[in-house]
């Protein structure tokens, strides 16, 4: 296929593709989230959901992980050169596969791998890519200037200008429409544990040339994450209203008593009260805890976007008119210095 052929709109029966990341032989959580969203997009478009996974020694290991999410076709690439991840072999796999299959949409995680791989694939295919999306929708577009109407485009939604606005980006003509999506913003849901999809074991040598194998990983060190914000049941989050880094220590003590994790708003991180990896919101991580305790958080839309699907929201704020109080299940009016020590004392006395 000539590269320039990619500049025309694909046929409506083109599939939705999800690139599945691996850690060893385990599919990463963000990929399950994207498979769930991909299934919904494919249903809306009336097309197949297809998945791509590339690694070493993964035959018989990944199929049962991926297919239950409603995957109609799974492309498995299994070869020593594909693990651990290096740029050129994985790029070659996706570029040549997409040149053959002409997908309509391709989704990847907004991870270190996705941020490396996505731009290389999209630029090689002269396609488009929207990074760090927080939402995906299907919609139409009317180009009044050129008097053209487009149907069933992928609306790629992401924060822009430092999270102050939400931008909706479209790619009317080039294919595939590519997006990387942040981990945690979409919920992973198994469609059917017994879902029967087709598995294709691709011939890797037909995709990866010898010059693509020039980089060899001699040593790889993986460190455990410093927190578990995405998986914990209770999050104690602080905003600029906490007042200081020392007051954030109170939140850490409360989180320790509750066996939870500490999060922060962007304002608190910018002020130096908390670490960047603790930031929750459009420009941070997205969380879905059973209980979210918001301390000194005003409730800006950028922060709420990252925790709005929490089970129970408790707001501790000295301002009774703080916007976050409008969406809170329980509101405690008072400063962090007044309220949090009492909560710590209470839980120490009543915890088993």
Judging from the principal axes of the Cα atoms, what is the shape?
Answer: globular
Q: Give the distance, in angstroms, between the N- and C-terminal Cα atoms.
A: 67 Å
State the fourth-level CATH superfamily of the largest domain: HUPs
Taking pLDDT < 50 over at least 5 consecutive residues as the criterion, the unreliable ranges are 1-11
CATH-defined fold name of the largest domain: Rossmann fold
Rg is 23 Å
SSE-based structural type? alpha/beta
Count of helices?
A: 8
What is the typical, i.e. mean, pLDDT?
88
Q: Please identify the top-level CATH class of the largest domain.
A: Alpha Beta
What fraction of residues sit in β-strands? 25-35%
What's the total count of β strands? 17
- Describe the main β-sheet briefly: 7 strands, parallel
The proportion of residues forming helix, as a percent range, comes to: 10-25%
Placed side by side, the strands forming the largest sheet appear as: 7-11-6-1-4-5-12
Give a description of the structure.
The chain has eight helices and 17 strands. The termini are far apart. The radius of gyration is 23 Å and the shape is globular. It has 352 residues and is α/β, with parallel strands linked by helices. The longest helix is centred in the N-terminal third of the chain and has 17 residues. The N terminus is likely disordered. Strands 7-11-6-1-4-5-12 form a seven-stranded parallel beta sheet, sandwiched between helices. A five-stranded parallel beta sheet has the order 14-13-15-16-17. A three-stranded antiparallel beta sheet has the order 8-9-10, covered by helices on one side. 25% of the residues lie in helices and 26% in strands. The protein folds into two domains: 211 residues, Rossmann fold (3-Layer(aba) Sandwich); 117 residues, Rossmann fold (3-Layer(aba) Sandwich).
